[in-house]
Amino acid sequence: MNESVSGLYSEQMDRSFRWGMIWFIFSEVMFFAAFFGALFYARVFSVPWLGGADPATSVHIWDTVVLSWPTAGPGFLDLEFEPMGAWALPTINTLILLTSGVTLTIAHHALKENHRGKLIWGLAATVALGFIFLGLQMYEYVHAYQDLNLRMDTGIYGSTFFMLTGFHGFHVLVGAVTLLVILARCIKGHFTPENHFGFEAAAWYWHFVDVVWLILFVFVYIL
Question: CA 121, CA 109: separation in Å to the nearest integer?
Fold first, then answer.
């Protein structure tokens, strides 16, 4: 912050920071790719194999059960639970995150146009929407535990559901706190239309979180 405010921020530093942020987001993409890959493998390969023949050996792995997704797995046949549907909390949260992306874009354009008031209000709305999303997700988890008997130990469905939504929720928390710091810096006048990569880096991260949620919403809640 001191380097930026005192004018020591060079073009070479700007390129370095941008590449660093790009590689950081790429590493996050790899995290989620591994988790989505686990969900894909469980749904497309493991569940059918457990209810049928292993194509590699033609041996029936589990002769007495036919499984279909969503399922906790053959070791939880006596466990009664309900999967989390897309309506209504997940859909509302999707709209909230999409709206936060819009308000953040409005704030970014306001910063480029040097509209300070519009910048602060747009960024404040983004932060507020982020924390509202987290509050609704916590409520969703309480609903899952108390009403659906859906827990982290509910077999493969429970573990993948909470792994993906929980890891994403952690990223929303990090992004919201980061944007809160950026908001404080905007109020103090740290950024100019020409020099505001701190804002851009936080915006990149937030839009990445938005995109991941859309993929998660489709493959975890809808399909």
Answer: 12
Instruction: State percent of the chain over pLDDT 70.
Output: 92
pLDDT at 3: 73
Q: How far are the Cα atoms of 76, 163, 164 from residue 156, in angstroms, in the given order?
A: 10, 10, 12
Token code pair at residue 40: 């894909």
Fold classification of 2-222 is: Four Helix Bundle (Hemerythrin (Met), subunit A) (1.20.120)
Contact status, residue 202 vs residue 127, Cβ threshold 8 Å: no
In angstroms, the CA 220 to CA 175 distance is 22
Residues contacting 197, CB < 8 A, separation 6+: 14, 17, 18
3-state helix, strand, coil in the chain (%, to 5): 75, 0, 25
What is the value of pTM for the model shown? 0.90
Q: Where are the domains of the chain?
A: 2-222
pLDDT in tens, 145-156: 999 999 998 899
Tell me the pLDDT tens digit for each residue of 188-220.
988 888 888 899 999 999 999 999 999 999 999
d(CA 61, CA 178): 48
Token duo for residue 212:
């991941």
